[in-house]
Each structure stands twice: as structure tokens, then as C-alpha cells.
User: What shape does this take?
Amino acid sequence: MDLVVLRLTLESHQMPTPPIKPLEIQPFLNQHVALSRRYFLQLGAVGATAFSCSPLSAKESDRDTLLQSAIDEIESWLTRPEDFRDVSRGKPVPHSLSAEKMSEVGMTRDSWKLEVISDPEHPARLRSPLTKEKALDFSELMKMAEKNSVRFPKVMTCLNIGCPLGMGIWEGVPLRDLIWRAQPVNDLRRIFYYGYHNDDEQQMFRSSLPVGRVLEDPFDLPPVILCYKLNGEWLSPERGGPVRMVVPEAYGFKSIKWLTTIVLSNLATANDTYEKGNNDLDSPLKTFAATLSVPKKVKPNNPLAVTGYAQVGISGLKKVQVWVQNRDVKPSADDRYFASAPWEDAEILSPPSQWGGGLPGGVIPQPTTGFDATGQPKNWPMRLGKAHWAALLPGLPAGEYILRCRTIDEKGAAQPMPRPFQKSGHAAIEQIDFRVED
Assistant: This one.
């Protein structure tokens, strides 16, 4: 019996662990096997066969071949630009316009312009606003990029959708560089911005940020950028090109596509379009786990390999855990988030050797925030990105089961805490049904 499994079992029982002398260890284990087996079967955790199987987490060289086969099928860390999920707004969606219309409205690199103006209703004092006559064009943006461009990895996620839209390396110029070109003097508290919206005010989609977040980067976050490349490629219209906003720690509604206008305002509160949907406008990315592959049917007493990913939010990632529950046994109604369930640690996979996403050679370009000169991550898992995980679950008796997975963040908070509310970002514990039968 694995001592780690035994320790977790006792802790989940909230039983004190007595001091054990070396010569007494085997009688102690024998004494508690029956109790532990009954407890795991009652909760449907992993069944009695758990005590003869490998632990859920293993070193790469020690992995079971079944688990390694499942790991080999995992998606790449980076998503190809054309494979991002699309939740674009507009009637018609701007990226569906004809090439001629895109050129006419500034949705090509040759025709793009960006204004930086004062809010007429809550004016900020600007010495040199970038009005239509002085608007920034793409060639000027590229001159700015020669002096100060940045790249950083970020998972793009919709606030109300339970899975990321895609993971990429975003490249652009810090927004603050452009703000200073407008020479603000005072009365500047908020920056709001919007993109092309079919020349229809009713279709405008607007987001905003406090000026402090734009002018400096708290907690070692990358800067807010005027983004023009994704995974080393020019932004396509589908991805918000030629230029979009990208806010590193925020959900996707802050990263406006087809950017045309930045407004410097003395407004004290957010005025985002997303407010109309009762959303938390300032909620940063959450940490949560979900599955990628789970067998739907398994033969009795045969181990099963499961894989998944974790979105690594602002609070980081310490662990991914899994729990298998027999469907016939109901968890406590008072334990809404399954805090007392016998969760087991899964394996958080190491950084990949090939990053995917269409990068030339699968190699991280240099310099990229968070990576060293050799293209390896300075810390893993990386905040604001994703990590993959895997677990080999022991064989189970025939029956119907539920698999759940969750994260533990770097401060010890278990998913969906510390922010369990959907309107501040999806983080519900996923539930996957599967059956064990001949």
C-alpha cells in the first residue's frame, strides 16, 4: 500500500495519525487497509484496487504505457491562429466583409488608422490628441515597434465560456507609448476603446481600463499592448487584425478587435459594453482545470488514463487533482464544492519540447516575456497560460462513475474558490460520466 495514499485517506477522514515506530509499520498498514478500502468504495474514490496500482503522479521515465499513449495525444501548448474559437460580434461580423470593404473601413494594414482623443463628456486635458488628421497608421506603429515591442504568452478566454478560445504568443507595442504621444496633462482617470462596428453605433463594443494599469505593470505583468502579431504571424481579420488590444491578465472582452479609437477620459468608473450582461468587469483570469480525454467505457479492474488542461490564472497553479465518485453514492449536500472529498494529485506535465501553434520550428521567439534566452520558461506552470495534466486511475468494479478535476492555486485555494461566481469568470468543477462494464 502506498504511504501517500494512506496519508491522504486518513486526512480525508480527519483522523489523527499516530506516531509509528519503524518495526510497527507493517501491522499498522494491515490494520488500516480494510478501513481505507471501505471508505474509498463508499465515496467511489478509486476503489479497493487503488492499493495495488501505481500512484496517479509519476516521473516521466516511470509512466505506464497506457498513460503515456494518452499524453502523446494531447493538444499542443500553443494554438494555431486559424484554430482559435471565434466569438466575434457584429452583423455582419467584420472579418466576413469583402476585401474591398475591409480596405475602405481601415481593416487592412495599408488602410488602418487609430485615433487617440479626449472624451467629450468627461474630458481629459491633452496637448496633442491624435485626431483623424494625426491618427496613427500602421507604418508608424511599426516604427514604434522597432524601439519597443513585446511578446508574451496568454490564454484567450471568454468570461462566460467554460473553455479557452486558444493559447498564443501575442506581440505588440505597449499602449502607454501611444498614450504619451497624445501628451495628457491631467484629468485622466480611465481609458476606453473600441473597434470597427459596421458604422452602426448600436453595434459598438467598448472596453475600458483604469489609467494606472495602462501606464505601469503591477505584479510583474506584461504591458497592455496594441497587438499586431499572433504566434509570429500578422493578425488575421478573424483574430482581430490588423490591430487589436490585448490585456494580459484579463478575459477576452477587454482585448477589443479591429481597434480604431482610444478615448482618454476623466470618467471614474468602467463603461464597458459587457456591463450590460451583469458581468464583473475587473475580474482577472481564474485558475481552473478541465479534461481533454476520458474513456466513456472501461472494463472492470482495468486502469484508465485521463488527461486535461489547467488554465493558470492570476493566482497561479500548485496542483491539479482528480476524484472518481460512484454514482450510487451521493456526496454531502453541505459540501457544495466537494472540499472533503478524497481528491488525488494528478501529474502536471513538464514544458513541451515543441510548443506548436505554427511557430517556425516550434521554437519560442526571442525575446518573449517569461522565457529565458534558450527558449525555456523561467517558471512552470506559467501564469496567464495553460498547463496540461494526466492521471492513471486504478481499475474499478463494474458500475457508473463520475470523474471530477480541480486545481489548487499557489495560495492553497481549491477550485472554484476564491471566486466561485460565474459572472466573474467560469471556474465550475467539471463533471464527466463514465461506465465500467464488461
Summary: The domain at 3-73+286-436 is CATH 2.60.40.650 (Immunoglobulin-like).
